[in-house]
Amino acid sequence: MRFAAITGYAELPARKGADGVTALDLYCRLARELAVDAGLERGEIDGLLVHTPFDGFSLYWPTVLGDALALDLRYFDVVELGGASAAGMIWRAAAAIEAGLCDHVLCITADVFTGLSGARDLMPAQRGEFEMPYGVSPPNGYYAMAARRHMHDHGTRPEQLAKIAVDQRTNAMAAPGALFGSKSLTIDDVLNSPLVCDPLHLFEIVSPCTGGSGVVVSRRSASKSKHPPIALIGAGEAGTHLNLARRPDITTSLAVRSAEAAFRMAGLSAADMNFAQLYDCYTIAVLIFLEDLGFCRKGEGGRFVAERDLTWGGDFPLNTSGGQLSYGQPGGAGGMIAVVEAVRQLMGRAGGRQIANAAKGVAHGNGGVFADEVTLVMAN
Fold first, then answer.
1. How do residues 5-59 score in pLDDT, each as one tens digit?
2. From the CB of residue 112, how many other CB atoms can be counted at a distance below 10 Å?
3. Nearest to 203 by CA among 283, 301, 276, 139
4. Which of 15, 69, 101, 232 is the most buried (most CB within 10 A)?
5. Could you tell me whether strands 47-50 and 75-78 are parallel, antiparallel, or unpaired per DSSP bridges?
6. Residues 231-265 pLDDT 10s
């Protein structure tokens, strides 16, 4: 994608509670901050991609937001891929620019934490005949089954999964705005936290919050940003079944296919990446994506994370803002955390947690329970 690049980003601090704020408030604030960061005037923004927040319109959300921002749009849409929505927005925005539809696209995700009573049923199709009658509680139960199966098939140990949460908490402590950035974790802390859904503990599962983030994708020739442009050099997308029971192997995701497509487009491999920003709704998701994106072979994820320093200054920087596990998960906006952190690192704007010589990196989004997978390869 030669004509488009990411030229700016914005991220709101994560917090519990809504305090009277609405998703529209968050979207408008992010739009303003994105325009400022990319050096754009309002009249220059002609593209808008969003996901639908919990308290937003199910239809016409881009139009509602465009109206609130007084934008004159030539390209706008809703991308609904769950946690893969953010990554899906980026290549769609680049493709629209390549097609000549627009010059500057705001890709925005935000959500307000209103408690379980305010949440939509995110996975209605998973109320299937082979799952719900046996008491499976989505999504915790599904990821717990994947974790237990991975342990059974490959000997993965609880302390290996716990280390992912520990290292990401270390990253969050260097990330302003992280929900859990004030207190470190140990492996014992994780394993002694309440068992939510065997074998997953409380600190291995994301905590919902209020927040949001986004990026600007621009035509290179129209860029006015003071920041170095970040190129999208590879993208891949894959999806089949939402129901976990229909998957032939619940420890292998379709990220195998999305990553293969993204790396092939980029002409690179996982070994060429300086960091990985992976969707991390649960520790088991991170471990499976490490395998499926090609950083290690299937079944070796536990040993891989145990033998490496996953912090921003380590030998394998992973989810260097803390990821959703420690930064917080603002509903469907959680996937943008990985994209923004990849852009931040490649722009050299990560401050005290800047990865040395960060030139190429991968960001990955996951929707549902290993259902929708989007992989992005980016470079400065």
1. 999 999 999 999 888 899 999 999 999 999 999 999 999 999 999 998 877 666 7
2. 27
3. 283
4. 232
5. parallel
6. 999 999 999 877 777 788 999 999 999 999 999 99
Phi, psi of 181 (to 5 degrees): -90, 5
CATH of 4-115+207-379, one of 3.90.228.20, 3.30.70.360, 3.40.47.10, 3.30.70.860: 3.40.47.10
Residue 57 structure tokens: 């319109």
3-state secondary structure of 366: strand
User: Per the confidence metrics, is the pTM higher than 0.85?
Assistant: yes
Bridge partners of 195?
201
SS3 216: strand
DSSP string, 311-349: STTSSS-BSTT-HHHHH-B-GGGTTHHHHHHHHHHHHT-
> Of the ranges 112-121, 186-195, 352-361, which one carries the lowest mean pLDDT score?
112-121
Name the amino acid, one letter, at 230. I
Residues 6+ apart with CB under 8 A from 211: 11, 12, 13, 14, 15, 26, 110, 111, 328, 330, 333
- Contact (Cβ atoms closer than 8 angstroms) between residue 51 and residue 333: yes
